[in-house]
Amino acid sequence: MTELERIRQAITTQGLAWKAGMTPIAKLHKAGRLAPGVFGLAPHGREPGGGWRWRSLAGFGQAGCAPLPAARDWRDVDGANWITPIRDQGMCGSCVAFATCASLESRVRIGNKDANLDLVLSVADLFFCGTGTDGCEKGWQPGHALERCRDHGVGRDADFPYRGRQAYCKGIPPVVRVKRWRKAVDAQARKEALCVRGPVIGAMVVYSDFLYYRGGVYRPTTSDVLGLHAVAVIGYDDEAGCWAIKNSWGDGWGEGGFGSIGYGCCGIDAQFAFYDAQVEWIETPAPKGASTRGARRRAA
Amino acid sequence: MLQTKANVLDARADAPFEIKLRSPGTAGYEWKADFDHVAFSLVSRRRVSNMKRMGASAVEVFRFRPLSQGKHEIRFLLLRPWEDEPVEQAKYAVRIT
């Protein structure tokens, strides 16, 4: 039995609501193994604090989110798509930087009430300047990424494009800075953070069958763990019982690069916090005679 | 151009052996083994994942049992299931005595 056949059989047997698929070249022999899935409440290692404590919005009458709606998906809010295009991390463990940039880009759009705002942040600037020369292999943590965004800001992708492999830091001017951040850990706080300010940075345990995900509400059929993975959480749906995520594996994975993770699945809403950042779009000092990019300043 | 790592391995006909390959932990890639099933059987496959940092690389461990003496090749391709082209390959020339 191939891996795909095993996954499809497990989906049917367990009554799950997602689709699995692959391309022909990958249909090679594979033997699986069930690995223990015991993890701490949060990733190991201390993370810096964000200088912002959680206070519920209940009773504060935040526009559009009090009471919380049963669903929110920033791909379609007020008839507009606030999510920037899907990107691809390639063969580098830079998921934290991709999830961070995805969250910040959308939050700047939302804060400036401009869904078409042209802002593609430099994942390379954030990741390679923030992690040094072995980041691709060692990975990162959201708290450290946000700390980097607070202390140094993030520049534009055009000034330091991402190539999918380890690179050296290159100093570029920042266009976005994080003012402060906080962790949302209970269901209400997670949804408030998403609903009010936009996509958040989330994390999950990745199981081997997640590579074969093609749509629907994902729940693992195996305990074969690949590792920890950061994603941008861009919405939720109480009726379907899932979080909407923006992944960084290109648009060939999942549903055009997006996915739906079942509530309670993969540690996304239990072991790992949602990182809720307050973002500032800052001016770029422009050389004389050049047009001023990012002339607007507004906190998101 | 596909990056290839070539290796040579000696194994005894009566003893299983392991091949360990480093992979990007959660970038969507996995190693696929391509080998002559007359020469080897794949006994098990396991991953040693880094559960400390998000995106950290992992090690995949393939355990084979030799089935026939001689010189045989095991080829591994690193690819994503939804993509056509592998990004890396590793070749092992295994001499079974």
Keywords:
heterodimer, A: 300 residues, alpha+beta, Cathepsin B, Chain A, 11 strands, 21% helix, 22% strand, globular, B: 97 residues, Immunoglobulin-like
How is the secondary structure organized here?
The complex is a heterodimer of chains A (300) and B (97).
Chain A: H1 3-13, E1 17-20, E2 71-73, H2 95-111, H3 123-131, H4 135-138, H5 142-151, E3 154-155, E4 174-184, H6 187-197, E5 200-207, E6 213-218, E7 225-237, E8 242-246, E9 258-262, E10 274-281, E11 298-299
Parallel strand pairs in A: 6-9
Antiparallel strand pairs in A: 1-6, 2-7, 3-4, 4-10, 5-7, 7-8, 8-9, 10-11
Helix pairs in contact in A: 2-3
Chain B: E1 3-11, E2 17-23, E3 30-35, E4 40-48, E5 58-66, E6 70-79, E7 88-96
Parallel strand pairs in B: 1-7
Antiparallel strand pairs in B: 2-5, 3-6, 4-5, 6-7
What does this structure look like?
The complex is a heterodimer of chains A (300) and B (97). The radius of gyration of chain A is 19 Å and the shape is globular. Chain A contains 6 helices and 11 strands. In chain A, a hairpin with a 4-residue loop joins strand 7 and strand 8 (242-246). Chain A has one domain: Cathepsin B, Chain A, CATH 3.90.70. With 300 residues, chain A is an alpha+beta fold. Mean pLDDT of chain A is 86; it is low at 24-44 and 291-295. Chain A has helices spanning 3-13, 95-111, 123-131, 135-138, 142-151, 187-197, and strands at 17-20, 71-73, 154-155, 174-184, 200-207, 213-218, 225-237, 242-246, 258-262, 274-281, 298-299. Chain A starts with a helix and ends with a strand. Chain B is 0% helix and 61% strand. The model of chain B has no long low-confidence stretch (mean pLDDT 93). Chain B has 97 residues and is mainly beta. In chain B, a hairpin with an 8-residue loop joins strand 6 and strand 7 (88-96). Chain B has one domain (3-96): Sandwich (Immunoglobulin-like), CATH 2.60.40. Chain B has strands at 3-11, 17-23, 30-35, 40-48, 58-66, 70-79, 88-96. In chain B, the strands form 2 sheets. Chain B has a 4-stranded mixed sheet with strand order 1-7-6-3, with no helix packed on it. In chain B, strands 2-5-4 form a 3-stranded antiparallel sheet, with no helix packed on it. Chain B contains no helices and 7 strands. Chains A and B meet through helix 4 and strand 7 of A and strand 3, strand 4 and strand 6 of B.
